[in-house]
Structures are given as structure tokens and as C-alpha cells.
Amino acid sequence: MATAAASNAPAASFTRGLEGVVAGETEICSVEQGALIYRGYEIHDLAQHATFEDVAFLLLVGHRASKDELRFFKDELIANRALPNQVVEYLRAAGPMLKDGTAVPMDVLRTAVSILGNMDKDAQKIDAEANLRKAKRLTAKIPTVIGHMQNIIDGRDLVGQETGGDANLSHAGNLYYMMTGKKPSAQYERTIDVSLILYAEHDYNASTFASRVIAGTLSDMHGAVTGAIAALKGPLHGGANEAAMDMLSEIRRDIGPANDKAKIEAWMHKAFAEKRKLMGFGHRVYKNGDHRAPILHGLGRKIAEAQGAEQVALFEMGEIVQAQMLREKNIHPNVDFPCGMTYFVMGIPVPQYTPIFVASRITGWAAHVMEQHANNRLIRPVSVYTGPALKKWKDA
């Protein structure tokens, strides 16, 4: 019940989860039923013809790079890959917490970004030039954090500690190399590259909106990105790719190694009856399917086919699940569903799926932080009060 003072305020519309509410304007991305567009370029076009470095420059700088601009941008990223010793020491200290489950990789990555902010000479500046420098450094260093973290979990020597990897590898290829110590095949490198393109930006999603809320207070780039990582961790957002793979692994354990369609459908019916939240399906905006999902599904299935029947069986199981969700619930898969399967057949550890999402989305977050700082207004919505009626303290 509203108080007397509040009753004179103009009525505000209310939608749970802000669904359908227009919360701002952006030149960065348009999420539409028929297209996903980054600064005027459609996602299928980018996935087929661009590289992640192309897309990162487009999002951060605001236009398609010339050949010279792209060459210089790539050189900047390579030059900034290595981590300060203090961050490496923190990652080593976090090793036992990662191994016993006290912390998960997203927690450690969040803290590493915060430490990087403490050490960045531009940390407290929010002008456009300083923000762009910080955005490039974060884009370069986050894959190195992920790689070193996985090396520590695996008990191996750190790959490329002095250099942040191999300067001859692309951003995507170096990410794979840093995690595994193996140079990726051209197929693996391109698949990771496309996955980074697909995940790079998605307008006012939960983590991006969180970053803009933080930036709207005139807080700094590292602070906004740290908050965005915390938002992305949740299974209803970035963590859905991990949860989708966990679900498929659970189905496999329950039904056995063979893809018995009847058993898979029975498992799904039981999940429906229990009203389980099946991760990797549905989207707040897309009602007719996520444009990104078929792109990644096709690339992942080609990798599976090159590896043999066991890996193909994973995709076939996923396809049975997808078909049943669409047939019985009219719900399409989102990009997280094929992402889980694709990274799995590439041998990428499941807990690193969402950190890899960060290695991509850092470009979108940083672009939004810069846009918010350039034309700022504090983001402060109102709420609908549903608490007790007005009381007198002395009467209690």
C-alpha cells in the first residue's frame, strides 16, 4: 500500500523483469526477431566473413577497421596479453579453491579483473581515450587469465607466462593454446573464433545492463566489467551453456550410451512433469529461434563428425531434445545449447565455458560502458511498493 506522500506521484507502468520495457538507446547492437545486428552488420554476415578481431574493433571503436587499423589493433592486443605478476600470483593462490569447489572459474576471473583495475594507470579515468585503452587491455588479458587458470587446475606449467601466448596465433587460436598448451587446428581455431563473434554483443541483456547501471554512476570500466561478470555467472544468463551441457550429461548417464529416442523422450517428459528448467532453450526476445544457434550447431557438428560416432551421438541426442522441445513446448534452442556441445567435443572443460563467454562479451560490455559515459544519465528506476500499510512506531 502506498503512503500518502507517494500517492500523489504519477503512476508508473510495471513489468516483471522489465520485460518489453525500453530502458535506453544504443548505436551498438539491435536484437530483432529477424536479425542480430552489430553496428549495421548482420550476424550471419559477420560469422561468415569477419574475424573476432574485426568484430572487436567494430564494437569498441565504432567502425569497420581499415587494413592498417586492423593490423595495429591486432598488434595492440598481442602486446597486452601478458598478465602482471600480482595477477599470476593470485591465480596460483586460487588454485586450491578452484580444485575443492570453494570457487568456480567465473569467481576467479571476476576477482582477476578487479585486480587488473587496481593496477591499471588509467583505472580512475572515464574519458573516451582512457576507456578505449582499458577496453583493449581487458580484451587482450582476459583470455590469458582463463588459460593460466586452466593450467593451474590441470597442474601444468603456465603456457606463455612471459608473452601471454603465441604472437603468431589469432585471438581465438591463442585462447585455445593458452588453455591446452596445444596449437589448434584451423577448424578448431575458426570455430572458437565464430563462437566469440556470436557472443560478443546482445544489446541490453542482464550483464550489459548491469555494466551500464554501474557506469551510469560514473564508476570506472573495471568496476563495471566486474559487475557484468557477476551477472553473467548466473545459470539464467551466461552460465546456461554450462548448465545445458550438464543436462545432456545427465541424460546420457540416465539412459545409457545408446541414443534410444524413446528413452530420451521419456526423460524429457519426466523433466516436464517435474517442471524442471531446461537450460539452453528459450529467449526473452527471440520467439522464433536464436539466429546464432544454427551457426554454432553446424560448426560443432562438423567437428563431431570428424572425431567419430561417440561425438556425433552427443549432437544426435541434442537434436532429439531440440526437436521434442520445439514439438511439445514450441521453444527453440538458444545459442547456449549448441555452444555446450561444441566446446565439449573440442575438449574444453565445462567450467570454462562461461569464462570464454566473458572473453567475447568484454567487447560488448566495454562498448556499452563507453557509450554510457559519453552520454550519461543515472539509471534509477522506481518500484511498486507491496509492503505493510503505514504504521506508527509508538503504537507497536
Describe this structure in words.
- The chain has about 400 residues and is mostly helical.
- It has a domain at about 240-345: Orthogonal Bundle (Cytochrome p450-Terp, domain 2), CATH 1.10.230.
- The chain contains 17 helices and three strands.
- Strands 1-2-3 form a three-stranded antiparallel beta sheet.
- Helix 2 (about 45-50) packs antiparallel against helix 9 (about 185-200), helix 8 (about 170-180) crosses helix 9 and helix 15 (about 310-330) packs antiparallel against helix 16.
- The model is unreliable at about 1-10 (pLDDT under 50).
Task: Give a topology summary.
Layout: H1 4-7, E1 29-31, E2 36-38, E3 41-42, H2 43-49, H3 52-61, H4 67-79, H5 85-100, H6 105-119, H7 128-154, H8 171-180, H9 186-199, H10 206-216, H11 221-232, H12 240-255, H13 261-273, H14 292-307, H15 309-329, H16 336-345, H17 353-374
Antiparallel strand pairs: 1-2, 2-3
Helix pairs in contact: 2-9, 3-17, 4-7, 5-6, 5-7, 6-7, 6-11, 7-8, 7-17, 8-9, 9-14, 9-17, 10-11, 10-17, 11-17, 12-16, 13-15, 14-15, 14-16, 15-16
